[in-house]
Amino acid sequence: xxxxxxxxxxxxxxxxxxxxxxxxxxxxxxxxxxxxxxxxxxxxxxxxxxxxxxxxxxxxxxxxxxxxxxxxxxxxxxxxxxxxxxxxxxxxxxxxxxxxxxxxxxxxxxxxxxxxxxxxxxxxxxxxxxxxxxxxxxxxxxxxxxxxxxxxxxxxxxxxxxxxxxxxxxxxxxxxxxxxxxxxxxxxxxxxxxxxxxxxxxxxxxxxxxxxxxxxxxxxxxxxxxxxxxxxxxxxxxxxxxxxxxxxxxxxxxxxxxxxxxx
Amino acid sequence: xxxxxxxxxxxxxxxxxxxxxxxxxxxxxxxxxxxxxxxxxxxxxxxxxxxxxxxxxxxxxxxxxxxxxxxxxxxxxxxxxxxxxxxxxxxxxxxxxxxxxxxxxxxxxxxxxxxxxxxxxxxxxxxxxxxxxxxxxxxxxxxxxxxxxxxxxxxxxxxxxxxxxxxxxxxxxxxxxxxxxxxxxxxxxxxxxxxxxxxxxxxxxxxxxxxxxxxxxxxxxxxxxxxxxxxxxxxxxxxxxxxxxxxxxxxxxxxxxxxxxxxxxxxxxxxxxxxxxxxxxxxxxxxxxxxxxxxxxxxxxxxxxxxxxxxxxxxxxxxxxxxxxxxxxxxxxxxxxxxxxxxxxxxxxxxxxxxxxxxxxxxxxxxxxxxxxxxxx
Lengths: 263, 377
Ligand SMILES: Nc1ncnc2c1ncn2[C@@H]1O[C@H](COP(=O)(O)OP(=O)(O)O)[C@@H](O)[C@H]1O
Ligand SMILES: [Mg+2]
What we know:
By secondary structure, chain A is an all-alpha fold. Chain A is about 85% helix and about 0% strand. Chain A is elongated.
């Protein structure tokens, strides 16, 4: 009444949310090392996230590999460097397509389920009850889920890479009339092992982001069951935004730090 | 003996919405207190602020000398182990059956064997009338059962402070009566400090030692039950009698026009929903089930209340004195109707009022009451 409330600074809300998101990420990182580790919950969550993501990922990966192969194939023929089609499409798939496809599916299928689960627990006051019983919900519930998202992301990333490369090979060799020998030779001429590492590292980081954002929105739904629906929605959108941004940063750093092969 | 809870100047708002301001009260150790208040006055928010789940804007909440509002995360976790909390909807873990729910705190915080855990859990489930339901999931039982299971879980670590958020809502009157008895029995057995938040009038009249009321973003009053039960405060009178006539409206703020219209209706003979008789007045408190130990809190409270008797309003004084046995009246040096002569006489406690029970607090601490001004009302 008497105290004049200052007009909130525009954008202050968004900043605060971002800060709290980071705080949660930090909390999760710290709690990963707290014993006892929730092994059962972790295994269950891995199984759950894998079961909702494997099939869609494989189904998305095949056409994705094909698109990359087709697009690059045409472009490279125009440039007159047919012999490098294999290398180009493999690099594109492993470094960019695979981590992103993985992350989108982990966020869209796994993250949304995590967010809905945590959100409904929050509105049923289960999280509060757990805290009052002296058990940290972050250590108990969030850490296993985030770790599960990370592990599944890494494994799926491998799956997408393999399926995508095979799809690309199929399209290039069978449909575009490329030669198998050139495909494989160019591959080993341009690609190098760090390309695979950065791909897996990206998947790991994207899995972490998807898990933390889902948990954050789930722990802070606004007002009742309707709020949980909104939270799920937002968690997927926020994750996508963050993923593309982080991907950009990682790619830029990688291209600067790791010298391209043959240059 | 239960822990003492001292709350000073607690204020909470969500953004611009003020919930309540400057709430100060002391829950005397080992006593049962009830906080009344219409729906939406922030009773649940109050409980959550007491255990550090919500952060109040200002004020302090001291439990065993630890300020919940400002203490470290570590201290907070330690202090919370003193609490048993029953949430409004039970807050059971949906993925565990009732047995595992009740066993959860034991498995987390003790090194008891599984056989011992089973014994304790089954005992608590039986206490709350849930024997035979231990294999059920929370989604498969009624709201009342969920609530009772939540209570069983809150009791399993023998807490020093028990907080109950509307233990009666969703229960029928008979179960509510059993629950009231259960809470009193518990208090007799483990001497825990209990705070119950409710809008059940019957429970408020018969269970607590201390009674308070939250309304319009403020603590209207808090003190010995006799004070509120004999109060002339319009809010209290309306609430206790469940009438439409009075300051409490359907929405939080009732405007003068609505009040005038209702007054006119009532004058024209339209019932305002209240019972025939006035439900205020002091009714006997529930006693522990025969065979259980006496409640230590009753004696402590009697000494405490007699020491502050002169500060209480006359109606409350009269009620308190009338509830004493003649022998006690002699011991405390008071007579029925003694206050009637203008300024109430100061009740002098007998020279050694505290013999015969063990209290660890200094007199001044026990007699500490929140800053209230009911003496002047
Ligand atoms: N987490 C929250 N965020 C914003 N407002 C809240 C929150 N929790 C409760 N409120 C508001 O606080 C008020 C009091 O709620 P509550 O404590 O549940 O009332 P009661 O338990 O007395 O019925 C309500 O108006 C509610 O909208
Ligand atoms: Mg409530």
